[in-house]
Amino acid sequence: MIVYLDTSAVLRHLLGQPGRLQDFGKWQAAYTSELMGVEARRVFDRMRLAGHLDDANLARAHRELARVEQAVGGILLTRAVLHRAALPMPTAVKTLDAIHLASAMLFREHREESLLFATHDTNQARAAWALGFEVQGTEDGKAERS
Prior knowledge:
The structure is a single chain. By secondary structure, the protein is an alpha/beta fold. It has one domain (2-144): Rossmann fold (3-Layer(aba) Sandwich). The chain has helices at 7-14, 35-49, 55-71, 79-86, 95-111, 122-130, 141-144, and strands spanning 2-5, 29-33, 73-75, 116-118, 134-136. Residues 141-146 have low confidence and may be disordered.
């Protein structure tokens, strides 16, 4: 199975949070937007400033994120991705979520194969499902239907 990793799936895995994907890293191949690294690092910084990550855990989180970035394929933030993200979506989505969805849609169109969309964000999962993706990572039954 080929998977598109939303930032929420990567963060939950890296931070060891409950409900993370049990089969993380056991896919045939994984891809994500280059946006994922920016989003993840912003979360790490907010967690550090709020006192939720000490220096040792912050260093570990950055090291593990770099490993994930090395292991997955990156989808560039191209004009085509940004144009697709600006088009209407079947459900209400936030700006960065639209960029992730657009990245996954364009990847799927160019590869012409199925793509599992991994996210822990229920709204994003619902949008991905409405766009025809098989979705993993949420407890919303509609979002997980394939």
